[in-house]
Structure of NlpC/P60 domain-containing protein:
Amino acid sequence: MIKKLLYILTVSLLMISCGSSKKVATKHKTNIPKKEQGEVKQNSNSSSLADKVVWTAVTYKGVPYRFGGMNRRGMDCSGLIHTSFKQRNVTLPRTSKEMYTQGYEIPLRKVQRGDLLFFKTSRKRGRVNHVGLVTSVKNGDIRFIHSTSSRGVIVTSLYSNYWRKAFIKAKRVL
């Protein structure tokens, strides 16, 4: 009985990680204006490259999860990050594990928009298997965009129980 419960719990946790499932979530359309989604006027001369990368990533909000995906038909977590940076002429590796080797580590108190957050969401070998892009830091709340197998591309708070426990490291690549 205990083995069954542990198995069900393990499978449930794997289903919400980045690359644990090839199931495609349904696409959610949003009628929220871009300004309210975190989008800021893009033609500003003071816009940083980090702002532009975040703006690009936010345009994928609602795209369903697809293992190995890198387009609007479906994306996984590293596909979202890789594509968002590539569209702004910044080259990053394709997988979260390879992205983890880039840039330099920064403490959470110094995290800024455009930094990467790395997570371990399963007991599989290795450390990193999920990545997210910081979209905002306000009043100590760090929000990041990523793609989950259960909900597709979404913006989440780092301080939700699940993501806080799975967090490994923050890195700056810009």
